[in-house]
Amino acid sequence: MHMGHVHLLEEVRRLLGQDTAIICAMSGDFVQRGDFAVVNRRARAGAAVQSGADLVLEIPLPWAVASAERFADGGVQVLLGTGVVDHIAFGSECGDAEALLEVAACLLSDTFQEELRRSLTAGRSYAACRQKAAERLIGPEKAALLESPNNILGIEYCKSLLRRESLVQPLTVPRVGAAHDEEDADGPIASASAIRALLRVGERETALDRMAPAMRQAYEVEEAAGRAPVFQETCQRAILARLRYMTEADFAALDEGREGLCNRLYDASRTAASVAEILEKAKTKRYAYARLRRMVLWAYLGLTPAAFPAEVPYLRVLAANATGRELLARMRKTASVPVLTKPADVRRLGAEARELFQLEARAADLYALAYPDLSAAVGGSVWREGPVIV
Fold first, then answer.
1. Contacts of 106 (CB under 8 A, 6+ apart)
2. I need a surface site. Which of 148, 162, 223, 276 has the fewest CB within 10 A?
3. What are the residue ranges spanned by the domains of the chain?
């Protein structure tokens, strides 16, 4: 959590009123770029509440480590599932919710799908073809919103709201400071990517200075306990072992688009001696690194896209303050799916929901193996730990 997130929370209350209650939907131990979170879910959720959020709910794993479209839909499902939300707020480069809604409506139209099919050509990325198709329908200025990562995610939030015919309103705040994934840490607001890059090269103090104050405090506690920073490289041998054990059919099950990317990953995994080398060998102009990283992560965690559920089956509480607990009391009447505040609540879930929770528990145990101090990597944390109460 960096100062850009704090700015978003502050702007939401400036725009909607200082007494506005804020619910955050947050990834757990693994994140959308196909990587390990640098600090575990409970530490980040607690820091979020201390930084201005009132209630933090987890985006379940099959949505948290998916494409932007599925990730956004998972976040929207979590927030709509509470039954108490009237706005969904997010940062964007453009800061114009109406413009993002217009692009979202275009992408959902049958006409756009026809244009997209005409634009898709060998060797061109899906993103480039999508923008070209949108240009023909809404013009280059609006279509250019598809060039920026936070705009893209905002458009996906809007698409999810439109598909679900929700009356909840999107609210976007202009992103300030560093761009998404920019690794330049100069300036008062550095990106999460920049902070991770600083930790990776040992620039600890500079990284801590770029975190939100509550996140810095939480990070220092986790670091002292041997649980931070967490990097994928710590589990690299386990990941490579998993990939080399897999068959071509196993890799094929990871390829959502059936575009042959699975073959490139399979071939690379036979000879490469690092995850970075696998990604480099499999990468082409057509395939983004994030997509490749997600496929490798799915392999490590034992996930297959075909088995991903369509709907979020429960809301798992990660952290709350007094206002958040009041929201939870309201949600007992308004929530459209069960709300889990303790592991014992899993017993009242249906079979598919219990299976998803068990998947989360196994993934958390695999995440813990990347702790700097292996003695801290005790399994079963999901079954023992309740929400962080601030």
1. 112, 134, 137, 138, 142
2. 276
3. 3-93+148-224, 232-307
